[in-house]
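It would be a great kindness if you could assist me with a short task in structural biology. A protein sequence and the structure tokens that stand for its backbone fold form the material at issue. I should value your view on which stretches of the chain appear to form regular backbone elements. The record follows directly beneath this note.
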Amino acid sequence: MDKPDQGRDTVDEIVAAWQRELPAVATLELELTKRATRLGALLAEAANRKLAEAGLTKAEYEVLAALRATGAPYRLRPTELANRLLLSSGGTSNLLRRLTANGLVIREADSRDARSSWVRLTDAGVTTAETAVRAATAAQRELLAVVPESTGRVVADLLREVLIALGDTPTG
């Protein structure tokens, strides 16, 4: 059953096209995937505009934000950082080199394990991370301002249920 035009979104158009062309793929899975992807893209676009103004890439921001979220002393092992951000060790190393060159992070030897090291935010890194997180959050808040808070809460809770069902639970 079709929805009225005022209640349709871009995904409805995509699903309708597949319903005409290849009905077997016009599924709930397609709708979930497309809507999650589009929502993520809209939120990322809003945040990325602010990050670009701050001179940060999305990947650099993610490193700074992950470190800041750990609390003082704002540090993680490089492998923990890579795992949290779903990055390769090579990709993480490249990011850390850039952030180190910009004075936002430093690498410290682990006094208990000579084979290991820590990545820690510098004072400038803490300031930059906090500024960037606030700017990205404000941009996303502005984008979502048209969505009733009760709707956002329900959607967030339902998405959590889906992610848990898929096994996306904390590892620590």
